[in-house]
Task: structure prediction
Amino acid sequence: MLAPIRRALVKQVRATFNDRSKGERPIARSVNALFRQDSVIWRVHGDVTSMMAGGIAALLLQMLHPQALAGIWDHSDVHENMLGRLRRTARFIAMTTYGDRDSAEVAIENVKRIHAQVRGELPEGTVYRADDPHLLAWVHVASAVMFLDGWRRYAEPNMSRADQDLYIAEAGEIARRLGADPVPQTRLEAEQLIREFRPELRADRRTLKFRDLVRDAPAQSAAEQPVQKLLTDAAVDLLPGWARELHRLRRPPLSGLPIRAATFGLATTLRWAFAREAYR
Result:
């Protein structure tokens, strides 16, 4: 009796992550992936809800670095196509986590080629380039910590410190292949690296415009709008307090408890729907 509901949920999520007009299909899980099937990164990256909340939080956190923001603002279609940006990121993560090793390595090389072409100058004259190892380190550590925190909040609150360290180390393998340096190997090192980056972070007029692009991005349908709003609120709640302050965002009411309860319910429902499926 519940099978039609399960199929409808699976279809809707796959439509969100895959652009059918481009012939995109879910990434097949391979026994020849860069990571083993029993790796922590498979576990963390395999959860739709926590990855979506963590991904939006990661994007907001990353864009507090003016050079990371400039690379996106000046060299992409993010102004008109936020969903496309999120889809490309999700597919890259899926490919480099579960996809066939050869396809994953091709995806990494493609990103490196794109990064090599992205360079420019900030309004005050600072030169930036997307393949700068230091800048790549920021983009990586911001995303790794937000994905991990999303997983811990909505899937595995009692995750051991050892497994958290394993996730950071595994995610770091992709960062190193992309050219990031330094790359943390433990949760403690990741937190320390974020602290070291904080003097470089700021929010100006362009940052706040990007914040609004993320928060106000149109959903694919009216039915999806409440879910998108919920996930965006969950992402804001997931951000460190100091990052919310820079973005001039308030923590959701009641310390975010209603948002967390609703998001946990969504996560539980989608795990049920995808119990026998590949997520992307």
Observations:
- Residues 254 and 260 are 10 Å apart (CA to CA).
- Residues 3-273 form one domain.
- DSSP finds 13 helices and two strands in the chain.
- The radius of gyration is 18 Å.
